[in-house]
């Protein structure tokens, strides 16, 4: 077993693995800029033409995922293959408690997701907190972005 | 190079995630089989489901002989680990039948084995923060128990399993079986090794010990302890 340690001080969490998301199915031509237009929302900027490996800035909206508290849906902004922003377009706000939880939890999930990507970590040991709806909607957005 | 295949599954009260870096024609079907199996393991072993075999066995409503063979097999492995850890690992924490401390790591390692059997030599499986990798290198962050969402250390390795127990997310929840009280010696404890099943159980056991580091050093297990005051301590074999 070969091992090495790199010490780092970065933010990351259970959603980390999602951020190395690539298409579910192998796709040999899957330069991310070749993602189909129907995957993008109306507000998306078109991918830059003629680039085989990187697109421009565009947004992809994930599926609305039903959780026991209500639907959760995220929108991902990509710069090439890098996530530059994750917006939560829908989350449970049935009552005050929902709103309180989400006003705390969603920014935190976003921060974790973003910094994990920057830290280039594949997975985190010891982080079990995760939002099922958030991760599933994020995954579906990234699946679409990757050309499925 | 083909793109990695990833899958995320909400099961056993947590999130399991899979990344296969060398997907082949059998990968999708294998993942489907693994996920079905994980839900089956949950049905058998969940202590949150009153109708699970483990719950019925614990209440004395179902004899062990009538249980799925996996139940007896798991309880035998638990008994071995209890002996090996001077009683610090137990399938009856708090006096109630609950082999969860074994089952999750076992489920993750079994999933990795199924992927290997399907021809993958380069994948990562995580179940609620316990990780089994094949091939590599994989960069595995170790959650910082004092800063939610942050990583305290990053370990890079091949064919590596990483298990962490801690109080950060669920509070003090691991009982010292000898006192019946929650273990609070450490904020978190991370062990490294080749196989997650044993590693995960040893992490739970060592976390409950009053002085885990000497025990882990004696057993030659690479370990990182993060103390409640934030300082790090590791065994000589921790990289």
UniProtKB/TrEMBL annotation, chain A:
Region Disordered: start-end pairs: 29-63
Superkingdom of the source species: Bacteria
Gene Ontology, cellular component aspect: membrane
Biased composition (Low complexity): 30-63
Residues covered by the FMN-binding domain: 68-145
GO terms for MF: FMN binding
Membrane-spanning parts: none
Protein name: FMN-binding protein
Annotated source species: Kitasatospora cheerisanensis KCTC 2395
From TrEMBL, chain B:
Pfam families (alphabetical): ApbE
Class of this enzyme: transferase
UniProt superkingdom: Bacteria
Cofactor(s) required, per the database record: Mg(2+)
The protein's name: FAD:protein FMN transferase
A molecular function (GO) term: metal ion binding
InterPro entries: ApbE (IPR024932), ApbE-like_sf (IPR003374)
Alphabetic keyword roster: FAD, Flavoprotein, Magnesium, Metal-binding, Transferase
Swiss-Prot/TrEMBL catalytic activity: L-threonyl-[protein] + FAD = FMN-L-threonyl-[protein] + AMP + H(+)
Keyword Glycosyltransferase: no
EC number, UniProt record: 2.7.1.180
């Amino acid at each position: 077993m070969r091992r090495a340690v790199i010490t780092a001080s970065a933010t990351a969490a259970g959603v980390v693995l999602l951020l190395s998301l690539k298409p579910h199915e192998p796709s040999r031509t899957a330069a991310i800029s070749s993602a189909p237009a129907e995957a993008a929302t109306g507000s998306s900027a078109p991918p830059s033409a003629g680039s085989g490996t990187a697109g421009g800035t565009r947004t992809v909206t994930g599926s609305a995922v039903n959780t026991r508290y209500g639907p959760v849906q995220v929108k991902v902004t990509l710069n090439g293959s890098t996530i530059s922003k994750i917006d939560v377009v829908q989350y449970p706000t049935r009552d005050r408690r929902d709103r309180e939880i989400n006003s705390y939890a969603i920014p935190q999930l976003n921060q974790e997701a973003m910094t994990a990507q920057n830290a280039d970590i594949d997975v985190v040991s010891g982080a079990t907190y995760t939002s099922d709806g958030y991760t599933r909607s994020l995954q579906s957005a990234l699946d679409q972005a990757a050309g499925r | 190079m083909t793109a990695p295949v990833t899958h995320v599954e909400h099961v056993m009260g947590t999130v399991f995630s899979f990344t296969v870096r060398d997907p082949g024609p059998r990968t999708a079907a294998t993942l489907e089989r693994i996920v079905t199996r994980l839900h089956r393991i949950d049905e058998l072993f969940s202590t949150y489901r009153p109708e699970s075999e483990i719950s019925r066995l614990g209440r004395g409503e179902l004899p062990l002989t009538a249980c799925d063979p996996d139940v007896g097999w798991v309880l035998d492995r638990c008994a071995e680990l209890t002996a090996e850890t001077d009683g610090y690992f137990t399938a009856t924490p708090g006096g109630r039948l609950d082999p969860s401390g074994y089952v999750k790591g076992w489920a993750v390692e079994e999933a990795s084995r199924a992927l290997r059997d399907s021809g993958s030599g380069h994948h990562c499986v995580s179940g609620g923060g316990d990780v089994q990798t094949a091939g590599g290198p994989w960069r595995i962050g170790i959650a910082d128990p004092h800063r939610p969402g942050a990583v305290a250390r990053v370990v890079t390795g091949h064919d590596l399993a990483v298990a962490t127990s801690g109080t950060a997310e669920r509070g003090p929840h691991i009982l010292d079986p000898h006192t019946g009280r929650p273990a609070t010696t450490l904020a978190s404890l991370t062990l490294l090794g080749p196989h997650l099943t044993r590693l995960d159980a040893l992490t739970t056991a060592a976390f409950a010990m009053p002085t885990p580091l000497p025990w882990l050093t004696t057993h030659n297990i690479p370990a990182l302890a993060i103390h409640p005051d934030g300082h790090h301590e590791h065994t000589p074999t921790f990289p």
